């Protein structure tokens, strides 16, 4: 196992090198950039230099006048030393801006993932064990609705019903207008109330696919020969389903859970934008649009590392959930 993990880590580093190179190349080729915007603003001031002169000066100061490969090597050296630079869009260190917005996105992602697992897996099992029953049809129809609902449409409906009509929640933001006047517990509850609708949105639009995935895999396992053998031996239906069938269903589910690791930190761009949540998804979008290379490179590289780590965790968990799986 130790040799396997070491090999996978070395291979992941090799993949990460090419992923970051591709990301850096694409960012350098974007049709817009921060320096162009700054050059336009500076050249418009009275008595200022021309746009071309400002553009050349800013490109030289940020190293954008060098070839892409040379600029990437310079970025890679700083990245390896933990020097992520300053954000051009937000004019603060990249890591500082990242820390200030990652918390709310992580809380939303973690809670929605837990709710998704708690709701989808049991309902998927019920639908599989009661195939072609009313419960199966209702669960399958609900899953199809969840898969088909666009995020922006469902979020708008929630805001219309619970914010505009009922007035239970605010339509946007993460704190209310009276936030500064509340005590510590009141401020905590105020933030929680503002995250209810975004979390419900993330949960509902993602729970359907996992529900159907669980049902499909559970049906496949229930039709296996060893399940029929277990029933023929006189085991109770509960032991057959949860001790024998469900454990084998966990293998594909582990892949989904491991792959969801980057989603905890990548943020939800559409949801955060619709509810005006200052999360990492919306902030990273602003950085990309502005051509903010330091922040965008750090964010996308961070997501790439999490993706590789999630795949490694999934492979290791295979041996945990199924004793038949062993890594030589």
Please describe what this structure looks like.
It is a single chain. By secondary structure, this protein is mostly helical. It has two domains: 33-72, no CATH class; 98-290 and 309-321, Orthogonal Bundle (MetI-like fold). It contains 14 helices and no strands. Helix 6 packs across helix 8 (184-222). The longest helix is centred in the middle third of the chain and has 39 residues, at 184-222. The chain is globular, with a radius of gyration of 25 Å. The protein starts with a helix and ends in a 7-residue tail after the last helix. The model has no long low-confidence stretch (mean pLDDT 83).
Name its key features.
328 residues; mainly alpha; MetI-like fold; 2 domains; 76% helix; globular
Binned, the helix content reads over 70%
Distance between the termini: 7 Å
Structural class: mainly alpha
The count of strands amounts to 0
CATH architecture of the largest domain: Orthogonal Bundle
Tell me the quaternary state. single chain
